[in-house]
Amino acid sequence: MSSKPLKALILKTLKITAMVAFAVAFVVLTVILAPKILTLQDPAVRESVRAKVDAAGMKGVVAVFLLQVIQVVIAFVPGEPVELLCGFLYGTFGGLLLCLVGIAAGTALVFTFARFFGRRYIGAFVDSDKYKKLAFLRNPVRRDAMFFLLFLIPGTPKDVLTYFAPLTKIPLARFMAISCMGRIPSLISSTFIGSNIKEGNFLFSALVFVIFGALGLVGIVIYNRVIEKYRKRKPADRGKPPAADNVPK
Questions:
Q1: How is the chain split into domains, by residue range?
Q2: 3-20 pLDDT, tens digit each
Q3: pLDDT digits (tens, 9 = 90+) for 172-230
Q4: Could you tell me if 190 and 80 are in contact, meaning their C-beta atoms sit under 8 angstroms apart?
């Protein structure tokens, strides 16, 4: 077996292993934490949680911030649990701000690593097939508007888009502004739910979760249709693509 197929097999195995480990950890934590979350119906328990968050101070903020950065860098880890946690600990808008700062930092790291280590680094986290679907984003004519639209649509693979962006010539600062603004509706829905869970509003939180979950499913359908629409267009209809990306091979 040549080196390239072997590396691809190793990377795929590592990704599957990491995803399974994350899924198992999520289930275990859900089983452990679910009874404790239900106790938040008691006002005394909610007050105790607030006191513990206050006592953690900046250490807690830094820990959650780093968790959000890691989630962005490891693209296949879903962001919703981190966003819910931010809302649970720091409220709707405090959690939103913490998410945005962590996402901005994670995005900067992804750009830095991608442009330094090249496509091999990106390929360790995102399949090449997904690159092909997003190839139309390398066209500078509609690139910025399409990035914003895709980040705005709920349910889209936003961290995959973050890994693809360095393959285009979009400046880091511009991409950070576009991606962060586009993420806000999705983020604030998650932090809002997390904040309401802390207040013991379980039925309302579940209702909002179902509504946004349904919107996410619709968003996935829209995302796939948008991708297919632009993939099928002739190059002349999409404008002249750039000669090459600015990421080393």
A1: 56-238
A2: 556 656 666 676 677 667
A3: 999 999 999 999 988 998 899 888 888 878 788 778 878 877 877 777 777 777 777 76
A4: yes
